[in-house]
Design a protein that fits this description.
- By secondary structure, the protein is of the alpha+beta class.
- Helices cover 25% and strands 29% of the residues.
- The chain is built from four helices and six strands, in the order ααββββααββ.
- It has helices spanning 3-8, 19-28, 106-114, 123-138; strands at residues 59-61, 71-81, 88-98, 102-104, 142-152, 155-163.
- The chain has a four-stranded antiparallel beta sheet with strand order 2-3-5-6, covered by helices on one side.
- A hairpin with a 2-residue loop joins β5 (142-152) and β6 (155-163).
- The longest helix has 16 residues, at 123-138.
- It is globular.
Length: 165
């Protein structure tokens, strides 16, 4: 058994005491030579939140506006509430577009999609609203928004909306 294993063996013999008391005992234990004490507080969950949901879609300039090329953005983080039952609905969304002068900035797209989490809406309304908002923001040459909803009541639903129609 190496030195590190022996130095922590005593911790296995601790009696059943409250976690608070155990942490005090552990902090008083000898520290093996290879361990490091952390002097800075560890980040909390609140420090790791990327942002608040927002309806603002930020755009950036297209670096190749003279070329037709396809962009596909996909995530399984689209949710909304069923307006009939109030239960959450989960979907994968796939946005495919050929940009003109503007691209949608991806973090703003994520924050925008998060805004649907607490909204009661039918799948068709969510899909068409997303298409309308993205077209208004980016003015693409072509765009298709497809939402693939998880099975609900034994029925899977896929909604596809396109611009130009």
């Amino acid at each position: 058994m190496d030195e590190i294993d022996r130095s922590w063996r005593w911790a296995l013999a601790l009696p059943k005491i409250s976690p608070l008391c155990q942490s005090e005992l552990l902090s008083a234990a000898p520290t093996p030579a290879v361990s490091r004490r952390i002097t800075e507080p560890s980040p909390t969950a609140a420090d790791n939140v990327p942002g608040d949901p927002s309806k603002e879609l930020i755009t950036v300039p297209n670096p190749e506006p003279g070329r037709d090329y396809e962009i596909v953005c996909e995530t399984d983080e689209l949710t909304c509430l069923c307006p009939v039952t109030g239960q959450p609905d989960f979907a994968t969304i796939r946005i495919t577009y050929i940009p003109d002068e503007l691209l949608v900035e991806l973090k703003s797209l994520k924050m925008y999609l998060w805004t649907f989490r607490n909204e009661g809406a039918f799948h068709e309304a969510v899909t068409n609203t997303i298409l309308d908002d993205l077209v208004r923001a980016t003015l693409p040459r072509r765009m298709t928004v497809e939402t693939i909803w998880k099975v609900r009541g034994g029925i899977a639903t896929t909604v596809t909306a396109s611009h130009p129609a």
